[in-house]
Each structure stands twice: as structure tokens, then as C-alpha cells.
Amino acid sequence: MKKLPLPESGEILVGVDGSAVSGAALRWAVDEGARSGRDVRALHAWTHDPLHGPQTSPPVSVHDARVAQRQGLEKLVHALVGSDLAATIRFEVARDTPANALVRASHSAAMLVLGSHGYGKLLQLMLGSVSSQCVREAACPVVIIPARTVPEDDGDHTEALAGTYLPGPLL
């Protein structure tokens, strides 16, 4: 089978949602970035869910919510891969659905790396829906890390990002 060349430029884009399989995708992307000399862009997409969390909290600005999401992403990435890296990691948060944010970001990436599924409200009904949409619509090659390859004791870190969600309404 002929190996398809990657674009000359572009970074490795990886979707991070805190699940064990997205942690495995992040580590794979960082290893590939170190091997190939490419930068890695860790992207976490978030939406405000007014049905989740206490409703008595004061309103939060979109800017403050975005800052909290970015801080949570940086903390999670450093917890998963450490701080002494051979690859440069950039952090990005997007207030959008994960699939839309990743497909849009894929236009400037050399490759997109995802876990086969993460966590969402409708996990049982939409298992793998983000990776499926990205495979169909991404503008670059997509690498999928299968959940079955991730050891059970690898840990779920969704709480690390969930703790950054601000429960109040957005202004």
C-alpha cells in the first residue's frame, strides 16, 4: 500500500475532552509531533449547558468562561503529558460543538488525531459521532485511536475539564 504524504506544513491537531481515549490521542499526537518536528494544537470545544449545574449562580461573561476553559485544558494537558516535551503544544478552546470546531480547525492542520469516542450527554446514542463526522468532513488526514487500545486504568479526566465549566448563565 502506497503511503500518502502529509502536507509540507501544518501542525498536528488533537481533540481533547478529558476522556481516557482522548488522553491516549493526545499522547500519540505529542509523540508524533516530536518524531516529525511538527507542533501540536490541543483543541477543546465547549458549549454552555444551562440545564447542567446549579441555576443560582451569577451570570458569567463569555470571556471569563473561555479563560476558564483554556486554563482547564492547559492543566489537563500538562497532567497527561508532562511539561518537558519534545513537541511544542498550543492550546485552543472553541465555543462550539466538538465536531464543528475540529472540522473547521482541520483546514490548517497536517493531520487530526482523535479518540474513537469521548463523553457527551447522549453517549449511548451517539457513540463516536464526533470522530465519524470528522472522518467524513475534515480537510486533512484523520488518525483515530481506538478506545479498546487504552488500558482501563488510564483514567478518565473529564472532571478536570468539567470543573472548568461555569454553571451560571452566559452574558
TrEMBL record:
<protein>
    <submittedName>
        <fullName>Nucleotide-binding universal stress UspA family protein</fullName>
    </submittedName>
</protein>
<dbReference type="InterPro" id="IPR014729">
    <property type="entry name" value="Rossmann-like_a/b/a_fold"/>
</dbReference>
<dbReference type="Pfam" id="PF00582">
    <property type="entry name" value="Usp"/>
</dbReference>
<feature type="domain" description="UspA">
    <location>
        <begin position="12"/>
        <end position="146"/>
    </location>
</feature>
<dbReference type="InterPro" id="IPR006016">
    <property type="entry name" value="UspA"/>
</dbReference>
<comment type="similarity">
    <text>Belongs to the universal stress protein A family.</text>
</comment>
<dbReference type="InterPro" id="IPR006015">
    <property type="entry name" value="Universal_stress_UspA"/>
</dbReference>
